[in-house]
Amino acid sequence: MPENTTKPKHRVKVLLVEDHPMFREHLGQLINRDLGMAVCGEADNIKDAMRLVRETNPDIAIVDITLRGSSGLEFIKDIKAQGLPLNVLVLSMHDEELYAERSLRSGAKGYITKNEASSELINAIRCVMAGDVYASKKLTAKLLERMTQKRATSELAGMETLADRELEVFHLLGRGKSTSEIANSLNLGDSTVETYRARIKEKLRLRSAAELYLRAGQWVRDHGA
Questions:
Q1: Is the dihedral of CA 200, 202, 206, 209 positive or negative?
Q2: pLDDT-based confidence at 7, cuts 50/70/90?
């Protein structure tokens, strides 16, 4: 009987970059159940993620916006700047209308919320690996509306003026974090965080620290970020 020389089909290698261990485990189970995919590495910060990119040569990375000590957007920018051939799918709890567009501009090939992960993650990975861009129907409708009507609410328009790092600081303020806590979380100096706070106040036309905390807290409550 002739030997079967058919090579096994290539399994898509997936790198998980997510800072919550239990959710990372859930993602791994979803991916490894699919015969065409396998998790090749896991990281909760940019430094380890970049090391795993070089060591495991993944086909796609599933990246959370909020990582330990930094932002998933910075990881995406690093990948793009270094010319690494890696597809990135952003998975986040953050407001998709604001963060999805930033993610796509940074170089991601798709955006999916954590609420959709259980039902849509595998489809999203397949979509990106097929060369397409993945976005939910809700997000697609929002982006098309903004493209065709070229309008946004004044609140969202104000938020879009914030740089990525400023937006990180804003969210942490909304969670009640102090300047020193934010500095420690983002590996920044206290004075640098104060500079970001001042820029945010100026861009959002806020007059005091109290207004800044109120606005940030309301944004976090409204958008579940």
A1: positive
A2: very low
